[in-house]
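User: Some background: our group keeps a shared notebook of sequences we're curious about, and every so often someone picks one and asks for a predicted structure to add to the entry. Today it's my turn. The entry only has the sequence so far, pasted here. Could you supply the structure so I can complete it?
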Amino acid sequence: MATKNIDEMSFLDHLEDLRWHLIRATLGVLIAATLAFIFKKFIFDTIIFGPTEMDFATYNGLCQISKLFGIEDTTFCADKFPFVIQNRTVAGQFSAHIWTSIYAGFIIGFPWVLYQLWGFISPGLKESERKNSRGFIVVASLLFFIGVLFGYYVVTPLSINFLANYTISEKILNEFDVSSVIAIVRSSAIASGFVFELPIIIYFLTKVGLVTPLILKKYRKYALVIVLILAAIITPPDITSQIIVAIPILLLYQVSIYISAIVVKREAKRQSKK
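Assistant: Of course. Here's the predicted structure to add to the notebook entry:
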């Protein structure tokens, strides 16, 4: 069957095209999820439960930094966390295995999902727009994975360390449910991954004329407030953790201003040649 020209496709044809892209994207995620399901020992013991052990890389680094400055820190230099992980429901571990595999499949298969999304959008773009957007999948995937790593190695351990050592009474024993621990790792990693897509989002918003560098600069102080609120949402309520998370987000915002300026400059140059 011959492929229809984009101009000849009806609304139903576009829906059919979208359906097949969604099916292919879902199949890719499911294949990656199956691999994650098979290698459950590595996914759970090494990745998910890694930040619950005091020999985790982040804690070792923060412990060395505190010693370097002569600070007696018992939270990052302790032998073990004052909590145990437990399962309190009959199907809890199986459910955790299934859903963790699906989320891991989405993270692993993110470039493939973007590829399918781009495959649906790109035929509707002009040749010059496709040329200027070359490398979109690579850059967007790279930013997402950097964000995931930031969430895993920075946000997750700071959250677990703070909440594990926070107590209102010595009479209370911390026995964390496995689903709660997984939720912290999952939400921190995926949320940070999407936050790091900010430059890509600003790029396309600038392309369609919804955002300009002047607007981004004008509302920079409001963006700062939003960033601090966002940092407060995805981190524990201590000021140090919030600052650590807020700094890279603010840097991303500044990078987004430069990207927006470049896009506007290119558009103005292209218009002048007409």
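Suggested note for the entry: The two ends are 39 Å apart (CA to CA). The CA atoms of residues 147 and 196 lie 5 Å apart.
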